[in-house]
């Protein structure tokens, strides 16, 4: 830019300079979830969980090779038997309900005695219990994925939810009351802030995955997977279910329509109890002797405690390093692999190992609504 004289000024430049000096620039700041930074902090200060860098490097190559062999992509999500196949507003509502309730399915009972849902002649366990229960409820005429139903105090009761997730065994779905409370609360927030519409919530994020995660965390207490840490002034942001809602939308709609996000790569893995188990099996995660003994003995690990925080945060950082290694060693993977797909892939593999009896260590035991 040039000026014809010292007296001539650019009013737009002056305004930009004024806003900058006042700390109010006109350029919008891209949303960040803070999850990766939280995970790195916990990893850097962890005592009981560590990463084996050689194991991570080897795992990265193995994961990338197997993802290619299986032609793993966002489209894989819809190939799962119970996931919705339609690409419409009802599916968005289904995914929202699913991820509000996507927590704590493990059981100490045997495979025959544990909570199971029978749907279309087949019994399901774990996460697939949840999906089967929702699908069965809808087929039986219960509008269980409708936020307006969740806030109807006469029609939506604890007994209705108990019926939706009725078990084929004597064991009930864990944390039934908490699941009911989460649906009621989410319905109320949608009603008060988003005209009762999940689509309005998504639209508010303006195509940003990180912004949608942050909206869920700030407006919906049941998505606020955020925890204090004694060594850090800012709380640790894990945000498992908020992130997986965004990821499920992206995968279901294959990055289009309601699943179109310009910054999907800002989503990390979803820190639960299954992926740490798989990362340990791949020789990526190392547990200290006391923690490993507790996991092997299936002792309850305190929610919000140091062990749980390290298991979850170090898993997030581990998958991030695996992602970076894949792209470093295989530049052609850029744009084809992210933490979301790595997480989905690892979950599918660990469930296959479980079915085959190939698990070398149990998953850790923590009961909470966060995962």
Automatic annotation (TrEMBL):
Gene Ontology BP terms: tRNA modification
PANTHER family: QUEUOSINE 5'-PHOSPHATE N-GLYCOSYLASE_HYDROLASE (PTHR21314:SF0), QUEUOSINE 5'-PHOSPHATE N-GLYCOSYLASE_HYDROLASE-RELATED (PTHR21314)
Protein name as it appears in the record: Queuosine 5'-phosphate N-glycosylase/hydrolase
Family as reported in the entry's similarity comment: Belongs to the QNG1 protein family.
Entry keyword Hydrolase: yes
Native organism taxonomy: Eukaryota, Fungi, Dikarya, Ascomycota, Pezizomycotina
UniProt cross-references to InterPro entries, sorted A to Z: Q_salvage (IPR019438)
Highest taxon listed in the record's lineage: Eukaryota
A GO term, aspect molecular function: hydrolase activity
Pfam family, one: Q_salvage
Function: Catalyzes the hydrolysis of queuosine 5'-phosphate, releasing the nucleobase queuine (q). Is required for salvage of queuine from exogenous queuosine (Q) that is imported and then converted to queuosine 5'-phosphate intracellularly.
Keywords: Hydrolase
Enzyme Commission number(s): 3.2.2.-
Record's catalysed reaction(s): queuosine 5'-phosphate + H2O = queuine + D-ribose 5-phosphate
Organism: Neurospora tetraspora
């Amino acid at each position: 830019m040039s000026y014809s004289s010292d007296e001539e000024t650019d009013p737009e430049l002056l305004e930009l300079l004024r806003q900058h000096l006042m700390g109010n620039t006109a350029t919008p700041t891209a949303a960040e979830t803070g999850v990766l930074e939280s995970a790195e902090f916990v990893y850097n200060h962890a005592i009981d969980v560590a990463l084996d860098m050689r194991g991570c490097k080897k795992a990265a190559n193995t994961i990338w090779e197997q993802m290619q062999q299986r032609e793993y992509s966002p489209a894989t999500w819809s190939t799962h038997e119970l996931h919705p196949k339609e690409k419409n507003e009802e599916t968005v509502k289904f995914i929202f309900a699913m991820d509000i309730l996507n927590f704590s399915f493990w059981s100490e009972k045997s495979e025959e005695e544990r909570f199971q849902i029978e749907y279309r002649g087949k019994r399901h366990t774990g996460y697939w219990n949840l999906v089967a229960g929702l699908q069965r409820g809808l087929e039986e005429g219960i509008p269980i994925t409708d936020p307006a139903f969740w806030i109807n105090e006469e029609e939506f009761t604890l007994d209705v939810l108990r019926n939706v997730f009725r078990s084929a065994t004597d064991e009930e779905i864990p944390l039934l009351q908490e699941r009911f409370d989460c649906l009621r609360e989410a319905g109320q927030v949608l009603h008060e802030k988003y005209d009762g519409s999940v689509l309005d919530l998504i639209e508010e994020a303006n195509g940003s995955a990180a912004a949608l995660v942050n909206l869920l965390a700030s407006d919906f207490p049941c998505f606020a997977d955020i925890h204090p840490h004694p060594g850090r002034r800012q709380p640790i942001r894990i945000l498992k279910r908020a992130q997986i809602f965004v990821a499920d939308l992206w995968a279901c709609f294959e990055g289009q329509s309601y699943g179109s996000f310009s910054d999907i790569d800002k989503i990390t893995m979803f820190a639960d109890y299954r992926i740490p188990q798989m990362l340990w099996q791949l020789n990526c995660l190392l547990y200290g002797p006391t923690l490993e003994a507790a996991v092997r003995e299936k002792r309850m690990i305190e929610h919000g405690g140091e062990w749980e925080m390290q298991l979850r945060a170090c898993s997030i950082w581990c998958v991030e390093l695996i992602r970076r290694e894949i792209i470093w060693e295989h530049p052609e993977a850029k744009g084809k692999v992210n933490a979301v797909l790595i997480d989905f892939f690892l979950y599918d593999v660990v469930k296959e190992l479980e079915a085959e009896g190939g698990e070398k260590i149990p998953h850790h035991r923590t009961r909470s609504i966060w995962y």
